[in-house]
Amino acid sequence: MTAIPKEEYLLKCTSACAGCSSSLCLRYVTKAAGPDTVLVVPACCTSVIQGIYPNTAMDIPVYNIAFAAAAACASGMSNAFRALERDTNVIVYAGDGGTVDIGIQALSGAFERGTDFLYICYDNEAYGNTGMQRSGATPLGARTTTTPGGKPTPKKDLDRIVEAHNPPYMATACSAYPLDLYKKVKKALSIEGPKFIHILAPCPPGWRYSSEKTVEMGKLAVKTGSWVLYERENGALTINGPSKAAMKKPLPLEDYIRGQGRFKGITPEALEEMRRQIQMTNARLSREAEGIC
Amino acid sequence: MLTIATGNKAVAAAVKAAKPGVIAAYPITPQTEIVEQIAEYVTSGDLATQYVPVESEHSAMAACIGASAAGVRTFTATSSHGLLYMHEMVHWAAGARLPIVMANVNRALGPGWNVWAEHSDAFSQRDTGWLQVFVSTVQEAYDATLMAFRIAEHEDVLLPVMVNLDGFTLSHITQSLEAVDPGDFIPPVRVPHAIDVENPCVYGPLTGPTEYYKFRWDMERSMRDAVGVIADVEREFAERFGRQYGVTEDYRCEDAEVIIVAVGTLGKEAEVAVDLLREEGIAAGSMRLRWFRPFPKLDFGGRDVVVIDRDYSFGFGGVVAHSIRSTTGAEPYSVIAGLGGQEVTYGDIAGFVRTRQPGAEFWFGVNGNV
Ligand SMILES: Cc1ncc(C[n+]2csc(CCOP(=O)(O)OP(=O)(O)O)c2C)c(N)n1
Ligand code: SF4
Question: Pfam families this protein is in (chain A) (predicted)?
Answer without folding.
Answer: TPP_enzyme_C
